Amino acid sequence: MEAPVCVRSATLADTGIINRIVERSIRIGCALDHRNHPLLVSDWLNRSPADFISSRLADPHFYLCVALLDDKPVGVGMVRVSGEILLCYVQPESFRRGVGRALMQTLEGWLRIRGVQHVHLNSTRTAEAFYRHLGYQQAALPGLCNGLQSVPLRKPLSSPAGQLDQGCKSAPR
């Protein structure tokens, strides 16, 4: 039986693991998007350094969470109170295990509690099918964002709120 995914609020102690999850997900999981082009990979990775993460943790306009499988951090998500999903990254070995879905449900739930009516994001081509499966629809024509093809997606938040901080047993890392 598959272990349940647990999602909890991120802490400053998670900064290192968050950066590792983002890096592995970008390098391995998004290779079709960046085609292993060193400058594209470097630029993408430089968008979420440790100081960026720590500043968002201290800002009430952002919510950052970590997903765990068997008490091990395997995913990270971040949303802005404006309704924009900024991060949804999963360790490649944890793909297709419900981690991304759990992160998105948690982020959307955080927005619903704050009265946000629509959520939006810019998806890579690699992740587009995942987001569409969750009910996101194309909001504008695809374009380039930092040298990568990007698809603007949007979803109404009209269903009941999801759970936040699902009571993980593990201590923050």
TrEMBL record:
<keyword id="KW-0808">Transferase</keyword>
<keyword id="KW-0012">Acyltransferase</keyword>
<feature type="domain" description="N-acetyltransferase">
    <location>
        <begin position="5"/>
        <end position="158"/>
    </location>
</feature>
<dbReference type="InterPro" id="IPR000182">
    <property type="entry name" value="GNAT_dom"/>
</dbReference>
<dbReference type="InterPro" id="IPR050832">
    <property type="entry name" value="Bact_Acetyltransf"/>
</dbReference>
<dbReference type="GO" id="GO:0016746">
    <property type="term" value="F:acyltransferase activity"/>
</dbReference>
<protein>
    <submittedName>
        <fullName>GNAT family N-acetyltransferase</fullName>
        <ecNumber>2.3.1.-</ecNumber>
    </submittedName>
</protein>
<dbReference type="Pfam" id="PF13673">
    <property type="entry name" value="Acetyltransf_10"/>
</dbReference>
<dbReference type="InterPro" id="IPR016181">
    <property type="entry name" value="Acyl_CoA_acyltransferase"/>
</dbReference>
